[in-house]
Task: structure prediction
Amino acid sequence: MATKVERPGAQQWVPEGADVEGLREAAGSCHGCELWEPATQVVFSAGSPTARLALVGEQPGDQEDRRGVPFVGPAGRLLQRAVDEAGIERSDVYVTNAVKHFRFTQKAPGSRRIHASPDVGHITACRPWLAAELAQVDPEVVVCLGATAAKALLPKEFRVTKDRGRTMVLPTSRGEKTFLGTIHPSAVLRVPEEDRQAAYDGLVADLRTALAALG
Result:
């Protein structure tokens, strides 16, 4: 029988009332789950701290872990292109992840680090950071990129495959906000080449729906 991993959660490391910069600084000391130890560093967020639109992804990848900035790898570059094509101003976007440390597997020290999706325990442990930063930014619309972000923020019955692209109004600590779930940009990169353009176009269409929700 597998041993259950106890994770204290991030709440004790989250400074009450801190702005986004204060949260980013404090997150570097977080030991709310075991992912902090093998990771190079915490990867918090990027973009405007007063953005009207927030994009929430899964977790940092290998390049993000090394550089300390979210969405700077291949999936991030694809997301930036999709944001531009959707007509969204980058200056009005806040980008973050549901989990702030890179989870990976590695056969031996120095070998390639293979992405491993965070589990529900990691999402739960890291949720206080996400809640605090979204409360500070106070975006009008939040886009959940992929299943992990959806698990962190959307109703449990939400499924990316059948519910993507639909706006929903949900209660938050700052009042009701509009949420939308879609695929993660890395999912576009994983589909066969002949289907990739259609997957990308679907992501752009969902981002346009989010833009329209801003009014």
Notes: The longest strand covers residues 175-182. Residues 193-214 form the longest helix (22 residues). The chain has one domain: 16-214.
